[in-house]
Design a protein that fits this description.
By secondary structure, the chain is of the alpha+beta class. Helices cover 19% and strands 28% of the residues.
């Protein structure tokens, strides 16, 4: 799975949480992340793109450098992303292996830096007319690893790109910012065992917890509710690979996307501090259908129910912290009359969704057929839509149009044509659906996310498909009649 914009943004945000004073100097990277319609991971994006370096420290505290023939500079191993890379760490480890033949299993992520770069550097790259490449910038995310093997690792240079290698003491590291950060680390201390856990949540805002076997003295946190996960093994190239292996082994789970959330610290039975890389992932299945090979059971719990469970304080706080940043998102088709909710009392957060009303000159309207595995409205037609993240509604619309269908829309060509305030089945939050018309756009709809949408098609608004999301049908009718606002799901 190619690197997602969200994965890069989350990683940069985690870095800035540790180094807030660098926000200004990383402004050009943040601007690139805010722009819609650009693949910041692609080397053909010449407004600037992401690269990754592997900062590898050996048992003596020395840092690996290689001579890059293209630039003539002595730097850490690293380079561009590839479509096959599924994480930033995977980019760095692949480049390390390609340039030096050091295998990923010979290194391990530095504790506390499993999901956060040690350093981020922005530097200019000269133009290469022969390759058709103008001058541009690299946004280099530098991932920190420790050479953990006790035997000598043979190094085989990538002769067409690398001239030589050199293990340098920290005070001779070429990059000043990298050198400054490395000097603050206890480089002679052997890192602890690396672990990874999954913070799995569904669209109802519930979290998947694992009830451990009650074997005191044999397993960690016996008889307690915990997150799925485990320790890294030699075959795991990254901690994400560790987690995916553990999920498959423990529960037969294979999640489409896992996003780094941070690093937590727990205390084992011996009193030692254990760093745990936390990855967040969304899943809307039934845990009773999973094949559990360890522990007693899996179950969904709302954050408000955690006080009733035997659960570690660190796990409870982690779930609540994630829930505060990620409100529930599930909606559903318009409910039957007997399922309708009474109006909520008090202040209730309303989820904002943006919707693209794309009408051709012949009057036909764009709809997409949602994937059968979609949490909301599976195998049902719907307009192109998405949820607002940390962005304004129009920016969200432009981003979603590019990500889902490859459509290029400019802000000045967007107008609000309808608002529908709707509420679904019990426990679903109220939602405000904003429908925007794009007066003009570039491109034809493409299937950019086939795991979400199976087909794009323009429909005559007088002959819409039967299996259309009910509030979408209502909104299209209101737009056709020029009405700006409607409601559905609320009591009369």
């Amino acid at each position: 799975m190619p690197l997602s914009h969200h994965h890069i943004r989350t990683t940069v945000d985690a870095y800035l949480a540790r180094h807030p004073h660098e926000r200004e100097q990383l402004g050009v990277l943040l601007d690139a992340l805010d722009r819609t319609g650009e693949d910041i991971a692609s080397r053909s994006t010449f407004t600037g793109h992401v690269t990754c370096s592997a900062i590898v420290v050996d048992q003596l505290g020395r840092v690996l450098h290689v001579l890059h023939l293209a630039s003539g500079k002595v730097l850490a191993p690293g380079g561009h992303t590839e479509p096959t890379d599924d994480s930033l760490a995977a980019v760095a480890l692949r480049e390390l292996h390609e340039e030096t033949r050091i295998p990923p299993r010979a290194v391990t992520a530095w504790p506390g830096y499993e999901t956060v770069p040690l350093d981020i550097d922005i530097h200019d790259i000269d133009a290469h007319p022969g390759k058709g490449e103008p001058g541009h910038q690299h946004f280099d995310l530098r991932l920190l690893f420790r050479l953990h093997t006790s035997t000598e690792v043979p190094v085989v240079l990538q002769e067409d790109e690398v001239g030589c290698i050199e293990w340098r003491p920290v005070d001779r590291v070429t990059s000043p910012t990298l050198r400054e950060k490395l000097l603050k680390l206890p480089l002679q201390v052997e890192p602890e065992t690396a672990n990874a856990s999954a913070l799995i949540h569904n669209d109802r805002g519930e979290y998947l917890l694992h009830l451990r076997d009650y074997f005191p003295g044999q397993i960690w946190e016996p008889g307690m509710w915990s997150l799925l996960g485990g320790g890294r093994e030699p075959q795991d190239a990254t901690l994400e690979h560790t987690l995916r292996r553990e999920l498959a082994e423990e529960a037969g789970l294979d999640l489409t996307d896992l996003t780094p959330f941070g690093t937590e610290y727990a205390t084992d039975d011996a009193g030692a501090t254990v760093p745990i890389a936390i990855y967040a992932g969304r899943w809307n299945g039934d845990p009773r259908e999973l094949h559990l090979t360890e522990g007693v059971m899996l179950a969904w719990f709302a954050p408000s129910d955690l006080h009733r469970l035997r659960i570690a304080d660190t796990t409870r706080d982690l779930v609540r912290r994630h829930a505060a940043r990620n409100p529930a998102t599930q909606s559903g088709p318009e409910p039957e009359e007997e399922e309708r909710l009474a109006s909520p009392h008090g202040t209730v957060p309303n989820i904002i969704g943006v919707h693209l009303y794309l009408e051709r000159p012949d009057g036909t309207v764009l709809l997409g057929l949602r994937h059968p595995n979609s949490a909301f409205a599976p195998s049902t037609w719907h307009v192109l839509a998405g949820h607002c993240e940390q962005e304004n509604a129009i920016a969200c619309l432009i981003r979603e149009a590019q990500e889902e269908a490859g459509l290029q829309i400019e802000r000045q060509d967007v107008e609000l044509v309808h608002v529908v305030h709707h509420i679904g089945k019990p426990r679903n939050p109220p939602r405000m659906g904003l429908f925007f018309r794009a007066r003009t756009w570039r491109g034809e709809p493409k299937l950019r996310e086939p795991d979400k949408c199976l087909q794009w098609r323009f429909w005559d608004p007088t002959a819409l498909p039967d299996d259309l999301v009910p509030y979408t049908r209502l909104a299209i009718a209101k737009i056709q009649s020029g009405e700006l606002y409607s409601e559905t799901g609320w009591p009369a």
